[in-house]
Amino acid sequence: MTRGPIVAFLLLLLTTLSGCGYNQLQTTDEAVTAAWAEVLNQYQRRADLVPNLVNTVKGFAAQEREVLAEVTDARARATGVTLQADDLTPENLRQFEQAQQQLGGALGRLLAVSERYPELRSNQNFRDLQAQLEGTENRIAIARRRYIEAVQAFNNLITVPPTSFTNSLF
């Protein structure tokens, strides 16, 4: 007769322990799944962000790149036409003047661009791109750290007593 209450108590204790451990195991497993989903979400954010920002920067930089290339080409033509005192022919003087006018026109367009954009937009956009990518990389690192912590908690739940005893039953 004395065995009956002890067996009943042990069965009740075993049932209570197994139920609590099982629920905690399921909750921790879901936390691991959610943490991994966040890691994937941040990687997808980066994959979506990079092309959009690069295309935006290209769009803004295209006009400025064209103006800067035009200035560079005009400068190269202007410095390429050298005029020595003994070569002062009307044809050489015309070539020299044309090269200088082209450079002056290109510089005028560059000044017009810089007046419209006090800070060249491409510079700001590249900085924005860098900041966005840096932020995304930080988010990825945080999501990965949280995933590792969730996996560690799950593994501890499975392997560390007393929950490891009841969880091994399931």
What brief labels describe this structure?
single chain; 170 residues; mainly alpha; rod-shaped
Describe this structure in words.
By secondary structure, the chain is mainly alpha-helical. 89% of the residues lie in helices and 0% in strands. α1 (3-80) packs antiparallel against α3 (121-159), α1 packs across α4 (163-169) and α3 (121-159) crosses α4. It is rod-shaped and about 125 Å long.
Secondary-structure blueprint:
Layout: H1 3-80, H2 90-116, H3 121-159, H4 163-169
Gist of the model:
With 170 residues, this protein is an all-alpha fold.
Briefly note the structural class of the backbone. mainly alpha
How do the helices and strands follow one another from N- to C-terminus?
HHHH
Helix share bin: over 70%
Radius of gyration: 36 Å
**Uncertain segments of ≥5 residues (pLDDT<50)?**
none
The CA-CA distance between the termini, in Å, is 32 Å
